[in-house]
Amino acid sequence: MNPPKKTNPDEALIGFVSISDRASDGTYEDKGIPALRDWFTRALTSPWKSETRLIPDERELIERTLIELVDQLGCDLVVTTGGTGPARRDVTPEATLAVGTKEMPGFGEQMRQVSLHFVPTAILSRQVAVIRETGEHAALIMNLPGQPNAIRETLEGLKDAEGKPLVAGIFAAVPYCIDLIKGPYIETDEAVCKAWRPKAAIRQK
């Protein structure tokens, strides 16, 4: 499979993977990928394109899909949704950890902190994040919750009525993480989510 051609070096290729038995077999409409696409369309101001996959809760298939997106297609970031609870069919974290070369525990910790502002059952969520390194390429892989509102909340964080951040969302740290693994320079709309970088890492316009 030939990787998509980038229109410029800073174009980010992002994989969206929705993991659900019932959505993948057509029992109900998938809401994960549309929610991801909508948020990233609002949040990113730098160029990007996406590759999408809708698959069932099968660990080997999840692993193969993540490997394909990173190793074959060259995704810089892969975001999954679904399959992170305690049910027997929820195996997304296990598959993600299996393909990672470095675990990034802070992402899962912060997602649960955000979700705990809404529901006590946030402690049942098992989202993880990893770096996958293959040759000279590396990508960040993150598990997100399955519900559209929770996807937005964990990426964007919580704000007060005046738009002032109350709890940081995880995406604020993603662009700098991508910088550190030699990926494209990702910029965001600060009204949605302000990307944080140390001053020395901010590109002058």
Describe the structure.
The chain has a single domain, classed as Molybdenum Cofactor Biosythetic Enzyme, Chain A (3-Layer(aba) Sandwich). The longest helix has 14 residues, at 59-72. A 6-stranded mixed beta sheet has the order 2-1-3-6-5-4, sandwiched between helices. Strands 7-8 form a two-stranded antiparallel ribbon. 39% of the residues are buried. The chain has helices at 21-24, 32-43, 59-72, 92-99, 105-115, 148-156, 174-180; strands at 12-19, 48-55, 77-81, 102-103, 129-134, 137-144, 157-159, 165-168. β5 (129-134) and β6 form a beta hairpin. By secondary structure, it is α/β, with parallel strands linked by helices. The chain is globular, with a radius of gyration of 16 Å. It is built from 7 helices and 8 strands. The mean pLDDT is 94.
**Uncertain runs with pLDDT below 50, 5 residues or more?**
none
The sequence of SSEs as H and E is EHHEHEHEHEEHEEH
CATH topology: Molybdenum Cofactor Biosythetic Enzyme, Chain A
Q: Please report the number of helical segments.
A: 7
Within CATH, the superfamily carries the name: MoaB/Mog-like domain
- Report the principal-axis shape: globular
CATH top level is: Alpha Beta
Strand content: 15-25%
Mean pLDDT: 94
Strand ordering within the main sheet: 2-1-3-6-5-4
